[in-house]
Amino acid sequence: MNIEEVRTYCLSKLGVTECLPFDEDTLVFKVGGKMFALLALDESPSSINLKCEPNLATELRESHTAIRPGYHMNKKHWNTLTLDESLSDMLVCQLIDHSYALVVEGLPARLKKELSYPPPK
After folding, report:
1. 89-105 and 3-12 helices, crossing angle to 10°
2. Which long-range contacts link 54-61 to residues 24+ away (Cβ below 8 Å)?
3. Considering the entire predicted model, what is its pTM?
4. Mean pLDDT across the stretch 64-79?
5. How far, in Å, CA of 89 to CA of 25, rounded?
6. What pLDDT score does 13 carry?
7. In order of start, what are the domains of the chain with their CATH numbers?
8. What one-character DSSP code corresponds to residue 59?
9. Residue 76 needs a FRET pair 20 to 30 A away by CA distance; which of 84, 102, 104, 120 works?
10. What is the pLDDT of residue 6?
11. Helix, strand, coil distribution of the chain in percent, nearest 5
12. Of the candidates 89, 74, 78, 77, which has an alpha carbon nearest to the alpha carbon of residue 40?
């Protein structure tokens, strides 16, 4: 996936906002005011940082050379995914979904309710 495809996918999640850059070269995506993705624009190839469950974070790092520990020292269990052809688009999307779900799971009930899809008609 390229940067714009990743950006579009992140923004397609319910309640996601793109915030002012973390720094000049990083886009920040939040849900309920909590960060779930950081998209680095200055690297070649580009990369995205995502929250991850501890066991899965370790497993992914061991099985994919394009996945390494996140670069934010104060963020435990984040992975940095290099957006190159070694990672399938499906895996990148699944890991974005995973990070999003972890953050939504930790939100207060009121915010979770606001993120719920409208009931079927």
Report:
1. 40
2. 56/98, 60/95
3. 0.86
4. 76
5. 23
6. 94
7. 3-115 (3.90.1150.30)
8. H
9. 84
10. 92
11. 35, 30, 35
12. 78
